[in-house]
Each structure stands twice: as structure tokens, then as C-alpha cells.
């Protein structure tokens, strides 16, 4: 039996810390999504590394990671990624987008992304599953609300015409969406743990991407991940189930 093959489209450079502690973001994602007997490849799309057109049919699914870049930007690699996602959509390939990946999927399919209406969302957030997706969650015995780690200041502002919201939170109207049976976006970070989030917050502050005025908000985010754990196993089941055709 031929092995299933998946591609991770890496939209951010690895930090030295994540490489040393976890083996890089590729390893973090494979830990969440990968199973024995599968083949996982990684493409550093933020550095201009993309799969060739003739390779696309050989993949069973694609995963788009988070990024410090804006999904509504016009950098060459972002425009190339939009074009690739449109091609994969036309091929009805399974595509899972996480954070920036969720937003760029929204853009590629005809929606609108931009700065979040309610500003930064950092820390642990409880998201509510919409009633029209309860059957999907029930199949995996997943109970709403779901706790997930967040770190974003952009969001999907307008859904693509073909898409439907399947989860929302108090702060973000489109926490998850689906488009047909082959595309799903998740605004949160199911691949993150507390340690990765805290390291990322330090990096963002060092780069002045989180202003001093938000430091109180950062402390509240740290307290939220101290108080509760994300629903990691539920997210693992959901993401694997979608990507591998079990849902």
C-alpha cells in the first residue's frame, strides 16, 4: 500500500530556540498531525521554496503554518502562495490552514483579511463550535467550547462566498471555517504548547511587534496558560480527522 504524503508550507523562519528544543516548527507540526507510515515534506515558502506543479498530484494534503507576515500583504512569496492555494483548491486537495494559514486561505478563496477588529488575541481562548458543525465534532466526541492557544492581530474579516463559519469566540468572529469537504482554517494554534507561546511572546516584544502598551495584556495571556491547558488531544483528533478524510 502506497504511503500517504503530506506537505507542510512553512511561512515563518524557525527560531533558534524552537530548533534546539523541538527540532523546528516542522517537527512541532508533525508531532500534532503525523502518524506512522506517512511521508511529510516541508517547503520554506516564506523563503521562496515551493513544490513544483508536477509534484502537487502526489500529495494527499497540505498544511499552511503561522507567520509574522500579514496575510493581506503583497510580498512575492505571499502572492505565490495565494496562487498555489487557488491551484490546490481547483484540484480539491485537502488544505489545513493555521493562524496566518487560516487567513491566507480566506484571502485566496475570495475573502478579506486584515487587522482584527478587537485587536491582539494572545493566550488561551475558549472557542464555540457553531451548531452546523456539531455533527462533525460529535463524530470525534469533541465537546464545545474548545480551548486553544492564540497569538494573532489579524483575522478573516469577510468569509469567501463558498465558506461557512464553524467556530467563533468572544473576540473573533471566524475562529474556524470550512469550504467544501477539502478546506479548513483554524485561527488558533493547536500545535502550540505553553512553552512555545511564551518564547514567541518574548520574540515579538524584542521585535517591537507587541508594543509596550500591550504588556499588561501579555501578562494576562501568560496567566491564562498557567490557569488552564489547551484541549490538545481534541485538536489533534480534529486536525488529523479532517486532513486524512475521516470527517
From TrEMBL:
Q: What domain of life does the native source organism fall in?
A: Eukaryota
* N-terminal signal peptide: none
Q: Which SUPFAM superfamilies match?
A: Class I glutamine amidotransferase-like
**Keywords, A to Z?**
Cytoplasm, Hydrolase
CDD domains in alphabetical order? GATase1_1
Q: Does the keyword Repeat apply?
A: no
Q: GO molecular function terms here?
A: peptidase activity
According to UniProt, this protein's pathway is:
Secondary metabolite biosynthesis
Q: Which locations, inside or outside the cell, does it occupy?
A: Cytoplasm, Cytosol
Gene Ontology BP term (one): glucosinolate metabolic process
Major location (coarse): cytoplasm
Q: What parts of the sequence cross the membrane?
A: none
Into which family does the record put it? Belongs to the peptidase C26 family.
What protein is this chain from? Glutamine amidotransferase domain-containing protein
List the InterPro entries hit by this protein, alphabetically: ChyE-like, Class_I_gatase-like, GATASE
GO cellular component term of the entry, any: cytosol
Q: Does the keyword Cytoplasm apply?
A: yes
Pfam families associated with the record:
GATase
What positions does the domain Glutamine amidotransferase occupy? 82-193
Amino acid at each position: 500500500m502506497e504511503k500517504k504524503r503530506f506537505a507542510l508550507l512553512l511561512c515563518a523562519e524557525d527560531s533558534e530556540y524552537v530548533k534546539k528544543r523541538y527540532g523546528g516548527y516542522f517537527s512541532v507540526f508533525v508531532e500534532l498531525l503525523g502518524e506512522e507510515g506517512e511521508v511529510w515534506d516541508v517547503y520554506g515558502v516564506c523563503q521562496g521554496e515551493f513544490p513544483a506543479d508536477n509534484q502537487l498530484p502526489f500529495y494527499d494534503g497540505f498544511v499552511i503554518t503561522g507567520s509574522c507576515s500579514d496575510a493581506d500583504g503583497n510580498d512575492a512569496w505571499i502572492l505565490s502562495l495565494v496562487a498555489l492555494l487557488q491551484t490546490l483548491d481547483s484540484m480539491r486537495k485537502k488544505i489545513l490552514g493555521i493562524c496566518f494559514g487560516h487567513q491566507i486561505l480566506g484571502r485566496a478563496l475570495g475573502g478579506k483579511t486584515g487587522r482584527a477588529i478587537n485587536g491582539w488575541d494572545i493566550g488561551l481562548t475558549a472557542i464555540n463550535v457553531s451548531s452546523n458543525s456539531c455533527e462533525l465534532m460529535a463524530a470525534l466526541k469533541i465537546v464545545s467550547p474548545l480551548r486553544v492557544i492564540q497569538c494573532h492581530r489579524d483575522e478573516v474579516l469577510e468569509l469567501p462566498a463558498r465558506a461557512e463559519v464553524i467556530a467563533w469566540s468572544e473576540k473573533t468572529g471566524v475562529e474556524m471555517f470550512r469550504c467544501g469537504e477539502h478546506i479548513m482554517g483554524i485561527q488558533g494554534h493547536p500545535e502550540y504548547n505553553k512553552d512555545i507561546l511564551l518564547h514567541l511572546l518574548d520574540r515579538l516584544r524584542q521585535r517591537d511587534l507587541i508594543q509596550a502598551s500591550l504588556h499588561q495584556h501579555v501578562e494576562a495571556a501568560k496567566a491564562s496558560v498557567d490557569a488552564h491547558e489547551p484541549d490538545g488531544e481534541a485538536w489533534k483528533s480534529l486536525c488529523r480527522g479532517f486532513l486524512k478524510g475521516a470527517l
